[in-house]
Amino acid sequence: MNIKLSAEDRMITFFRYFSLFLTSLMFLITRTGPSLFYKIPIIMILALLAPAFTIAYRSLRHKPHAVMASVSIEMSLILLLAICTGGYNSPFKLYSLNPILIAAGSLSFYFCWSLLVGYFAIFFGFSYFFYKSAESTLVSVLLENGNLFLALALTVTFMQLLSRFRRQREEANARTNEMLEHIKSLYHIVETSSEHDFMNIGQVITEYAVKLTKLNKALFWFASYPGGPSPVSRQTGWLPEEEVNLFGELKVHEPEWRRQKEPIFKSFPGSGDLLLMPVRMSTRFVGVIGVKLEAHEGLENRRWYIQQLMFLAELSAITLERHELSVTENRLIVTNEQNRIADEMHDSVSQSLFGIVYAAHSLKQSCRKMTPSQLEEQIELIHDSATKAAKELRITIYSLSSKKSGGPTWLGMVRSHLQSLSRLNDVEIDFKVKGDDFSLPYTYHKALFRIISEATGNAIRHGAARKIEVELTLKPRWVGLAVRDDGVGFDTDLLWTRSEENTGGLGMKNMQHLTRTLGGDFQLSSSENSGTQILISIPVGVIELKNA
């Protein structure tokens, strides 16, 4: 098994072999101790044990008890070697730094210091018993060899501080990476949200507030808005009866929230201590995002929570403002398009129809006085005018169709999105289409685009896929979608369990919800290291019947 070496691993390995070389050299050139005949086999044994213990520590790094046992064995061997090769004067007495460095860097504080104190006590006791001279006293021996303990103690202290800083950095990096993943998922959701989702954006924000802060309870309370309907206030973690009391308290203090621009710490009866952050658009006050604080939370954690709520408040304000601007823009587009259609119909089709009506009225008044040839000529004129009107009407209808006028079609936009996704992430995406989307209602266009975008995005971000197949089948009464990837896969049972506990991602839940909203069937199959497959079947027309 190949194990990637860190800078710390390389440093400790270098120190082990360098210290072994120096201590072995000193052991060979000193005249005390055993003869050269015994020294060479000892050094050879040490040269074999050094790589064996190095490999063992790397292989067992995730098994603390096994590392503890290996460190204890090596320390015992070094202790025995130092006592047998001269005691106080043994060059191997400092070779014990090798297992001590391992203990200080990867094992508990108490074990490391127990190992150090035990080594020094046993080494000093046996050396004093076997190697003391007649004039030596216990105090003098301690003073002479105290520098050994001091060197070991300073080394342990430095290594433990270094290890602590390393762990803090790794935790910070892990937290940052996790937060970035959540932010990307949240941005992807709000970027592809529909009208229905914007009215329930509070639920999405509260679930991500729980994910980002690692707390159990979060809320998004929306103030009333006289200009139109506001999104629904939502919470995560509170019971339904607690929710009523919570939102009631927030409503009572609405004037206070409208004045505030900074984070607020507030305590409500029955709800506990809350951290609240007002949400403001450029034009108006929106509401409040909050989390319930735990009693043991320190100042550093509270600063972290404030940062997350400030981000969520800013993102919510931008999302809602963008939505309102989009609604206004759509209304203006519809109005302008209606005016354009009315102008075109008035200038072309209506004029022709007026001429036909006028000619028919004249013919009705004078047909009895006309000869057959005159009557036929007049009818032919009306026929030509009706044909011209029909042609103008057909041209107008075709000009309104993006498919007929050469404008961007829905399938073209989907293909363009997948091509951009492919280029940006260096992933092969094969998009196959069977059928025509021309008669597919707009609601299905919106939902299918979101599902395709969510499925391919998940395959790239979470599945690390290198190839994705998207197959879309469009029939008059049925739509089928299949998305397959060659990614790492996952345990689907674990996914739905986490989803129910609000600890998993929202992507699958959103796709499942969209499919079921349209009356369709959602199937997910995946396993670890075997990729993922999503199959969706949606009947066309079900949602229209429900809304009829």
Automatic annotation (TrEMBL):
Name all Histidine kinase domain ranges. Answer: 448-542
Pfam families per UniProt: HATPase_c (PF02518), HisKA_3 (PF07730)
Which regions span the lipid bilayer? 12-30, 36-55, 67-88, 108-131, 138-162
Q: Which reaction does it catalyse?
A: ATP + protein L-histidine = ADP + protein N-phospho-L-histidine
Required co-factors? [4Fe-4S] cluster
Example GO molecular function = protein dimerization activity
The entry's protein name is Oxygen sensor histidine kinase NreB
